[in-house]
Amino acid sequence: MAVGLLAAVCFGHFLNDGIGSIIPAALPILRDAHGLTFAEVGLITLIVQITSSLLQPVVGLATDRHPTRYALALGMCFTFAGLILLGRAASFSAILLSVALIGCGSAVFHPESARIAQFASGGRKGLAQAIFQVGGNAGMAVGPLAAAFVVVPYGQPSIAWFASMAAFAACLFVWVGREGVALELRERIFAKKTEEKKGADSPGFGLTKRGLIAFFAMLLILMFSKQVYIATLQNFFTFYLIDTFGLDIDRAQYALFGFLVMSALGTVAGGPLTDRFGRRIVILWSILGAAPFALALPWVGLAGVIALALTVSFIMSSAFTAILVWALDAAPERVGMVSGLFFGLSFGMGGLATAAFGYAADVFGLHTMFAAASLLPLAGFIAFLLPVDGTRKRA
User: Fold this and answer.
1) For residue 350, what pLDDT is reported?
2) How many domains does the chain have?
3) One Pfam family for this entry, by name (predicted)?
4) Burial label, 289 (beta-carbon count in 10 A; 0-12, 13-18, 19+)
5) What is the reported pLDDT for 205?
6) Alpha-carbon distance 239 to 243, whole Å?
7) Which of 116, 133, 279, 335 could form a disulfide with 180 if both were Cys (CB 3.0 to 4.6 A apart)?
8) Would 273 be classed as within a structural domain?
9) Which residues contact 96 (CB under 8 A, 6 or more apart)?
């Protein structure tokens, strides 16, 4: 395992997602400053997520064919520009343009850095992806604190202050990109020689083309249920606490911080559990196992809502590593494209759902919207249809 490079990718993920998480954390400030509706709030998230969704598979496919050293640094330059513009945006259209630029930066970062983490794993893919993911989750958890301590007291212009983090990340990514491309070339040469000497299982676990398509479709549905529910909670949790229980913005941001911290802890747990017990078991119990808590969440008081939200965040977040590692193993020659597909679709589907649920909240109310969203983890039943993976399992 290339520990130094993996640590740098993890820290880069922390910076990238820490910057990105400022957007949902600052939504109440933007709503009050510009008089936005819930549908417009959802559209802001939709733009940044759809931008990532459309570009990530394309970026992944391009870098699979032509690895480049400076893709990560270039992506962070888009983020830098988006932050500067968002801090100064005076209209709703300017806000949408700025978050689109930030989405472009995320689109470049995720498939490229996920591929680097895969090749830096030294065979411990679940652990490596968990380390990579926890950097992003930790960064996302910082967003509400940044909003509480910086954006809330100083307003929208303070968002531009975080451009200094993007500048630092761009400098770090110059080194990460150079070392990552060199490591990937060495690993591919070594893997090819190993296959020639010992033989290797064919990609796709011996499934037919139709079976492989069905396999990826099931993984994407499971990713949909997981990401959409988490994205809905993340983007509307503070509004739900404020409007339903009368919390002020600061206290609601602390609750969101706890939600994101539990998401990071769940990601850390998901990697070793995937390596130990197998991907199918982790996926099954991470998504379906969260269903009882999600179904109860809209029907309890303030303390119960916060406790259940933290529990759901921890349980469901452990599924992402298992889903991603299984998909990457099924298409080892398309690491960047698969990473972009799953990262991109998860972000894009979360954005689409956020816009749809935002509209539903305007029409039917936040409580009804949360009750409808709580059905999503029931999609975990699909995990029973997944093939039994070859990973060693101990019950």
Assistant:
1) 66
2) 1
3) MFS_1
4) middle
5) 60
6) 6
7) 116
8) yes
9) 43, 44, 47
